[in-house]
Amino acid sequence: WPCSSCVHWGMQGVRPLQVVWEQPVWSAQDQHRPGCDDWCRQLTVSIDGKPIYHFVGTSTFSEYTVIHVGCLAKINPEAPLDKVCVLSCGISTGLGASINVAKPPKGSTEAVFGLGAVGLAAAEGARIAGASRIIGIDLNTSRFEEAKKFGCTEFVNPKDHDKPIQEVLAEMTNGGVDRSVECTGNINAMIQAFESVHDGWGVAVLVGVPHMDAEFKTKPMNFLNERTLKGTFFGNFKPRTDIPNVVELYLKKELVLEKFIN
User: Fold this and answer.
1) Which residues pair with 154 in a beta bridge?
2) What is the predicted pLDDT for the residue at 187?
3) In the chain, domain spans
4) Distance between CA 30 and CA 146 in Å, rounded?
5) 261 vs 39: CA distance, rounded Å
6) For the residues 75-101, what does the mean pLDDT come to?
7) At a CB cut-off of 8 Å and minimum separation 6, what does 192 contact?
8) Are 124 and 104 in contact (CB under 8 A)?
9) What is the model's pLDDT at position 155?
10) Averaged pLDDT for residues 221-244
């Protein structure tokens, strides 16, 4: 970064003029880097005067891309790329959201909001971590049968109830779930996921990316009652060091990636 005031004071261990790499999801929606106080512009590629935004340092929907070395992970050459490629984004995001961030204790209850690929990976992560009840929440009932393969033990469709889903879950779990992971990006689902966890020890993890102008609104007492709200990007995995380890889980058949591919 070119200016000495770019590095935010909150980036511990980083000093001005050091080389760092931080690529937020927001770069797909605007040009602000959250670690920069001076609104420095890094997105310099344009076509016909229109900026070409970069998504989290990889932009993998393009046929060709030039990426920073920090976005490359060296993995076991025995791993089939047509299978482990799914670990480069969504599957690792869901797995890590449960394993690394929510960290459900063995025998606990975790609710997963949204049963797309990321949500199914979160359910799989909860299963690996040892959660005994994994409650899948989705508006599409057809997803429930498939979700059983990923560890879901119970299912709730909010459309089947005449009360808020957080109240439904509180009744099902004697006060609230131990952990919840939100994988939709819908701001209402995010609020519901937080308000679904138990007072005193409940932890909610936000994974989905909402619109940048969306606002999270809840009662302050939810925090005073010791509920915890967390957010995560890429499941808190460090790509270069952690992805090779996740690949090894697949090669040891402790993680079945074929379930995610159709």
Assistant:
1) 135
2) 97
3) 1-72, 88-236
4) 36
5) 40
6) 94
7) 113, 164, 165, 166, 182
8) no
9) 97
10) 93
What stretches of 166-223 adopt beta strand conformation (E)? Answer: 179-182, 203-206
What's the fold here for domain 88-236? Rossmann fold (3.40.50)
Residue type, 129: A
Residue type at 103 in one-letter notation: K
Per-residue pLDDT band for 239 (boundaries 50, 70, 90) equals confident
Residue 135 pLDDT exceeds 60: yes
Integer Cα distance of 129 and 202 in angstroms: 16
Compute, in degrees rounded to 10, the torsion defined by CA atoms 223, 116, 260, 73: -50
Assess contact for 170 and 140: CB atoms under 8 A: no
| The pLDDT of residue 14 | 59
Give the list of residues 6+ apart from residue 128 with CB closer than 8 angstroms, or none.
95, 98, 99, 254, 255
Contact 115, 90 (CB under 8 A): no
Residues comprising the chain, all counted: 262
Residues 6+ apart with CB under 8 A from 106: 129, 130, 131, 132
Q: How far does the chain reach from its first CA to its final CA, in angstroms? A: 42
What is the pLDDT averaged over residues 77-85?
94
What residues contact residue 64 under an 8 Å CB cut-off, 6+ apart? none
Mean pLDDT value of segment 135-147: 95
**Whole-angstrom distance, CA of residue 39 vs CA of residue 34:** 9
pLDDT band at 186 (very low <50, low <70, confident <90, very high): very high
